[in-house]
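ugh ok fine here u go
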Amino acid sequence: MSIAIAYSRASQGIHAPLVTVETHLSPGLPKINIVGLPEEEVKESRERVRSAIINAGLNFPSCRITINLAPADLPKEGGRFDLPIALSILAASQQIPSEILHEYEFAGELALSGELRAIKGVLPFALETSKAGRHLFIPESNILEATLIEKLKVYPASDLLRICVHLTGNDPIACSVVRPANLETLNEDRVDFKDVAGQKHAKRALEVAAAGGHSVLMAGPPGTGKTMMAMRLPTILPQLDEDDALEVAAIKSLSLNGFDASEWRERPFRSPHHTASAVALVGGGRTPRPGEISLAHNGVLFLDELPEYDRKVLEVLREPIESGRVMISRANHQTEFPAAFQLIAAMNPCPCGYLSDPKRSCQCTVEQINRYRNKLSGPLMDRIDMHIEVPSLKSTELSQQTEVPESSEVIRERVVLARARQLKRAKQINAKLGTRQIKQFCHIEQTERDFLQAAIEKLGLSARAYHRVLKVARTICDLEGKENIEKNHLFEALSYRRLDRNVSHS
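structure:
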């Protein structure tokens, strides 16, 4: 009998390592054996493949069939291997030419009728296929993701028989290599900062945060616009470049909801509920999937009602905030996901929510307020660059606006210019500067250094907070287009550390 080989790929984080599907037909009682560390879903493909081949009008070999998924130490899961397994069986039984299979990679789950069903994680698959110099066969419903990869020849197919006809050369399938043009259009219905009345200080702080990539914690009474402003932060961030957009789309491709073409090149905005578990945030599962922090990669992670999150859940954010990556370990393998998110959080100033609110009096004691704020650990608070207060607005500020609020487009122009200065100077945004780079690019004169040192000692800030103040001041300086950090830049940066101060009732 004979051997045939087809190529596919496994899913391992945002990577897709090559899997060689080897099929051997030999004399013996009819039986299918699949080896090579397959998960249960892959083992079940035996029945799907058998029915799909028969219902497609093809002959299923009546002999002993051994299928090896190499390399043997790489876990394989899902129904993506149905199509390459079926084609390797047909090639081994000489129903289709085996030589031509080496030009392609295949992915797709087979229905019992032979139709192809969509799979998850097509974008990482397609990216690796392009690097390998092969062409790709996928289900028709996955075509939009695959065409995001430039110069990759993608063949969308509806069923197994159609692919076999193509491979025999009788009726070739038209390949798709061009990305749909409408992906480049922005969503015109998105939110805008011009919808936010008042709150000049908070909007200024978010502009600084957007320009430097800084994390922010907003504290204020209910209904002051914290969530409203957080939702609008992505609208003032620079649009994703091609490489970053592909990385974001690849992560979404692996998620439960999959990739949405309408969000192409848009910054992600994730807002998990405060009951979310640590696994929901960082990712996990038997087969690791990206969590909220990875789905917010290159975008915004918004945590509303921050003290209501379980403290252990919040502590898992500490390392990803610094490293921009998360490693999920299992007994037999590790999976790494990118998680370079911008953290924006919101909280009430006290348990009742009305501390310093002119409309309603606070009923909390100083001990209750401090206990509420102490739900957030010192190390976590140190890692948040900016702490701002969002006060309650007077009714006249809402009904009698003297100025028209700036639109997101206007603010975004300033943010883009400030980021361009940072990238030209240090090759990265200010929030990502290391200790050596801070000394090099955030230099201050002796007068400013004495002022900052006195303020740091009075507020009791840590060394990490000291560096974060310098980085925020550098961003404020960049927004003004100045070369050197001045005292007014430091003063404004220190004003964004409001929650470092002790609580007291007047």
